[in-house]
Amino acid sequence: MVDVLVIGGGNAALCAALVAREAGASVLVLEAAPREWRGGNSAHTRNLRCMHDAPQDVLTDAYPEEEFWEDLLKVTGGITDEKLARLAIRESSRCRDWMRRHGVNFQPSLSGTLHLSRTNAFFMGGGKALMNAYYRSAEALGVRIRYNAPVERLELENGEFRAAWVGKERFAARACVMAAGGFESNREWLREAWGQNADGEWPADNFAIRGTRFNRGVLLKFMIDAGADSIGDPSQSHCVAVDARAPQYDGGICTRIDCVSLGIVVNRNAERFYDEGEDFWPKRYAIWGRLVAQQPGQIGFSVIDAKANGRFMPPVFPGETASTLEELARKLGIDEATFVRTVRAYNAACRIGTFDHTVLDDCHTEGVVPAKTHWALPIDKPPFRGYALRPGITFTYLGLKVNEASAVHFSGVPSTNLFVAGEMMAGNVLGKGYTAGVGMTIGTAFGRIAGAHAAAAAQKQGVEHAAA
């Protein structure tokens, strides 16, 4: 029997394992994926949103707690637990030195990365390097790791953890941290969550899964069925607009289309359907997957002209290019006349002030619906470019309800030795919406919290057994 069992192999899981081991606990990690695919969705990440009151190495200016909180409040529409959200925010200000001790290096934000030099610390080498550093540190500290070990069920007794099962193999522990991800790779569950639309389509069938194929929500479903308190809407998720040619799994960041705020987006009927300049892209990029999912055929088209060149991070696939709007419409497979009419109406509505993509500028539209609130420039300088879009799910928000110790609850009563971190509880903070890097903030904060409390619970249980 080990002291702490950690189920999962991404950022939250490894943070929990490292903290528990530092506290003196023996730790075993069960990772569903094979070694070459370890790390879950964290391997696809790039940065961590961090509170800081003054410039810090790779972070510029200041990003105080209240501003972080207001940013989160705005994107979630108030669907967040303020106490838990502020706990994650405060933890983000004191985790980076700990991360460095475990081999994580940081770098300044790259040009075109969503204006994040002030708010987000970027990992040197990205999420893959981050996870490799954590695994190296865990192994050096004596954390045992089992790959190809998907947990199907737990043994529970009155809300207390006893053991986990992988096939016919039983793993007992004094305490457990679950960090096994959401259900985004479970197409049947996505279908159930999203249902059918009026045209009889199943929108979820057209979703790309940006991350790991191993997050099928098996443990999450088991826990909900076992009576654990849940939180969140199963249809809400971190859902961005990705290139329609993206692979079904593991497309990651390089398939995301980041030029939306620099042009217009139309559906397959060649009509605009939302304000492309509503707010800064880091605060709005994660609403566009859901917006596209609500369009006919779950398809959209991001259209820009030559003025946008160099102002966004280009995706891995080149877009369709054309010297005329009519040619671009043909290449995108949408109606030429309607598309040209849509673009011309938008162009005529543009009220050009001083364009500045780094601020909420005064370039806007008048007399067209939907309006474009900022960065509205006519699409009139060839070559024109278009990217076909479809929804890309990063992670789902349905999860398990927790307290400040990240303990799982059963009928409102927190377990004394079962904890949860990462995507499996992110819905406590993210009821809807997203802002760049906050998923890693939640995973890092509650992974460390869960690991510390699991180690303490294991120690307490060990003392009690010894006394008995």
TrEMBL record:
One of its GO terms (molecular function) is oxidoreductase activity. Its cofactor is FAD. It comes from the Bacteria. The keyword Nucleotide-binding does not apply. The keyword Oxidoreductase applies. Signal peptide: none annotated. Coiled coil: none annotated. This is Tricarballylate dehydrogenase. It comes from Parazoarcus communis.
